[in-house]
Amino acid sequence: MLELRNVTRKVSGETYVDDISLTLQRGELNILLGPNLAGKTSLMRLMAGLDKPDSGSIDFDGTSVIGVPVQRRKIAMVYQQFINYPTLTVYDNIASPMTVIGRSKADIKRRVNEVAELLDLKDFLGRTPDTLSGGQQQRVALARALAKDADLVLLDEPLANLDFKLREELRAELPELFAEMGSVFVYATSEPTEALILGGNTACLHEGRLVQFGATLDSYRQPAVLQTAKIFSDPPLNTIDLQCINGKFHLADSGQVLPLSAASNPDGNYTLGIRPHHLTMRAQQSSDIELSGKVSVTELSGSESYVHFDFFDEDWVALLHGINDLAGQQPVNFFVQQQHALLFDAQNRFVSSIAGAGR
Amino acid sequence: MKIHNNKAWLLVLPVLILVAISAIIPLMTVVNYSVQDSFGNNEFFWVGTEWFQEVLNSERFHNALQRTLLFSALVLAIEIPLGIVIALAMPRRGIGVTICLVLMALPLLIPWNVVGTIWQVFGRVDIGLLGYGLANLGVDYNYTQDTLDAWITLLVMDVWHWTSLVVLLCYSGLVAIPEVYYQAARIDGASRWAIFRYIQLPKMKRVLLIAVLLRFMDSFMIYTEPFVITGGGPGNATTFLSIDLVQMAVGQFDLGPAAAMSIVYFLIILALCWVFYTVMTSYEKQAGTGAGGGRYE
Amino acid sequence: MASIELQGVAHRYAASDPKYAVNWLDQHWQDGGAYALLGPSGCGKTTLLNIISGLLKPTEGKVVFDGIDMTGLRTEQRNIAQVFQFPVVYDTLSVAENLAFPLRNRGFAREEIESRVQEVLALLGMQSRAGQRASSLNADDKQKISLGRGLVRSDVNAILFDEPLTVIDPHLKWQLRTELKKIHQRFGHTMIYVTHDQTEALTFADQVIVMYDGSVVQIGTPQELFDRPQHTFVGQFIGSPGMNVLACEIDGADAVVAGNRIGLQRQISAAGVGLELGIRPEHIELSASEGIAVQIVAVEDVGKHLVVRTQLAEQQIAVIVQEGTPIPEHAFLKIDPAKLNLYQDSFLVDAGS
To answer: What is the ipTM of this complex?
Structure first.
């Protein structure tokens, strides 16, 4: 069990990791999700002991690991770049961490074969990494990390440099692999889709702070804060700032009244968030909220349409099924079900799904 | 920052002891000499800053310093641009690379005193290939009598000996530039000069800093070669600080002034290196103030 | 702006190399079109792009812009803009100077440079940082500058993009891609976009060129590629998850998959061996009662929808199910016959509607 308590790290005045507390269990996959510069790598370096926190504690199975040199801890790390020993065969690459700690030959052989089987590398054991494709090379790096029987396995965007299709394949394989081992897994990614496919738990990071931690799907479906909803949305979350005055929602900028009723919400500032795939061209229920805008550009992907439209001067996007080639500048109406309209208060906390009043 | 592992100190200890014995202790001895006078018999008495005042006010020191500064300036002015030009002209791939690198490394493999002897013989009017050849061509060349000839000989020798170092450093900087930068420059329609000015020179900055510092320190402390070739002459024309210092300390056995001069000499080198370093890295610090420049992700 | 023609273009990196990175291509790309070259790494798409921009000289064939042979001309003479996968910025220059660089090199007038640079700065949302030194930017912003340098010249024959958004943050990726699409609609440059990411290719381009192993497998609109892949490779490469490919036999108007009959509702002429059915996960419905009985192996929740992995005998079939749909315990598949494609030896022999 890896336990971080109030961990902060600053580098020359800039806060990279801001007061993060996090408990990660063995045998579970924990995803660090957030855009570039959210602090994912900085947090991983702290977990690995490559950096020291300015304050806070980091315990593994109840003992502090701060100050313990990386070499003395059982840690494996996989990076975005495929890092293998170029002159060693795949077998020796996978065996290398075990050779270092002096495991018996037979032991090593058994373990390498086990891991190679798992990662589909059996046929390449005698080859050197440079004769393999990128996907295979990254699998060798993964195999080396897994073979080690580490307490803590850190994976820093391991699939980012791979082809889209290869990424799809490995994403599907990884959760099974992780389930078979008793380590604490930490997996950093900036892609929400990747987090959703991998499952497990997700820690959403935003500007060095932990905004939400929980089961991946729960965090996706019930964002506690606006940042979680934003981090988890691909395409990006549609948002608009609102002001609630006497039970009516106004646009924060222009004061225009929006066709939404505030239900029981107190007056104040709010942000409305709607995921692109929750917008539809036709109402599904009579209680659906109708939103009118003007099309700016439409992207078609063969099976889906991304309609970008202007909604009260905000750039919004609707993800529609099938081909809807809407020309630019034309007015367009979208509908969203009440439970899919997410309302956040001035502190960016989730308040409720909105109650709509039609027009 | 707290020390994570005390074993590290143990491993560094031998080096620290070595540095102490080889550098710090002799330096302290020199400091000791520089503030005392002796009439032999190991009797010393305190003279304060007297030797320093004497050295700093002496015309002999000023002249030697000027000569040394001029020599270093000329060395840098010739070797740095020449080194860059040669590095730019060197091939980037194929067998030519190996040939060029071996040729470049040759002068660097020759010991200083041998270099001096080679050029001393090479330039002699009676038997040297260069001196004899020039004399036969009607050029009035004699480095033992003519000041200009002596300087030219020393400069040509230093350029011949050390430009390779600059070339090798620059070349290592150049080959580290990813191909995509050149491709982008071609797309952007950049001229040869623009490519040099905006891609190659900025990317060579770090190695150039090293080259400038190394060549400055070396040329500023040059001793063996002029000692062998000209012996500081004709007259005092090539008496650089180092030669002057040795003459004072060993020739005249003026340990006090010589020690004071050593320290002044040492401080000048330190100060000039600091100036070079600050000037050449100031731009990087300026650039580094932007947001998130060096973050991990 | 110009049309681009490739006449018998082939390239190998060494004469001793038995394999060509690009295999005798004949292409005609229209002036003002948005094209994407899509394929896995090593398929030759970047090689082809570099041949067009002149960074590589093809071993064989000709590159023709607007009827003029460009094969012998250097990159600088082709008047092309290209954006690379990794950011290239001129470290010592400011953001604005970086954008002005391609214009200055070509001797544009000061006022024109100023106005073009301002326009691109606004496009990138970087007006406030115009004076900042490029070396101090983070990777995302550096790539924005690289993109900007590609867009700053209005007179180029074509703008080429070599996986320009690979290193960019997912959210910014969306924004920039949409921006590129808008720029294309507004200025009508000929644009060629190389990527391995199908979403990028399909959403950006009017015509997508799918490449595999140095050859073009199919050219078509995103919808054509989605509905009628000419080769099972295209079907599987495009779509997430890709098209299901099921070994089958043909019996009259029925396809038989592992003993299950699927009415094709059309007469099929193909016969013999090596027949396969292609059906998109989007075109299969999961039912609790009717259709072909399958076993559910796994359910993946990707947020906007679910991917249900099922098994029919030895064959895997993926089905896309909308968010919130209940998953039946005993599942059946309802397949839309109109969307079924038939393949023989991996090539399309009978397309659905």
So the answer is: 0.86
